[in-house]
Amino acid sequence: MTVAAANLQHIRDFLLEHDERAGEIEDGITPPAARSRRSRRASATTRLFLRDRRN
User: pTM above 0.85?
Assistant: First the structure.
């Protein structure tokens, strides 16, 4: 019961926030652009190996 109540609260909060954002967009207030996230090209082990090799 507690988990279900917590889930319903999360859903309610999400929907309220979604409605607020929709109202802001209608009023001409645009949210900031999301930053792009770059994935790492090398694993942590490779980066450490190359760092130690340079030193």
Answer: no
